[in-house]
Amino acid sequence: MESRTQLSQVLRSLFFEEAARLAKEQEVIQRHRCFSATSLLLVLVLGWLEHPLAGPSQLGRFAHTVGVKVSKQAIAERLCWKTAHWLRSVLERGVSTLVLACPLAQGVLARFPAVV
């Protein structure tokens, strides 16, 4: 990644496009009532960045700071295996995008059939 502008574009695409597509594929968001894929990702990622051990109650309070009006019960319902798998796939997509964007990493990693 050569610049903050490029990183910003990658993150914007990841949070607003890829996360929504992956959530739809994996049926994480079934109907858009209190959460969209983007708002759920923002609450979980930014909430846990600010408070790494946050539970549903603290994440619910944090959600209000990013403009998402939800209860702690709504967050607790989404803390399940399906959401965990979705978060992992979003993380994998983000990491692969960043690794492929770095020319040095491409040269080093090109020698290996897979990176696990």
Gyration radius from CA atoms, angstroms: 16 Å
The multimeric state of the shown protein is: single chain
Total beta-strand segments: 0
Proportion of strand residues? under 5%
- Summing up helix and strand content along with how strands pair, one would put the structural category as mainly alpha
Number of domains: 1
The count of helical stretches stands at 6
Percent of residues in helices comes to: 55-70%
Distance between the termini: 21 Å
Low-confidence stretches are none
**Main pleated-sheet profile:** none
Shape: elongated
Q: What pattern of helices and strands is seen along the backbone? A: HHHHHH
Average of the residue pLDDT scores? 85
Q: What is the secondary structure topology, with strand pairs?
A:
Elements: H1 4-25, H2 37-50, H3 56-65, H4 72-78, H5 81-101, H6 103-109
Helix pairs in contact: 1-2, 1-5, 2-3, 3-4
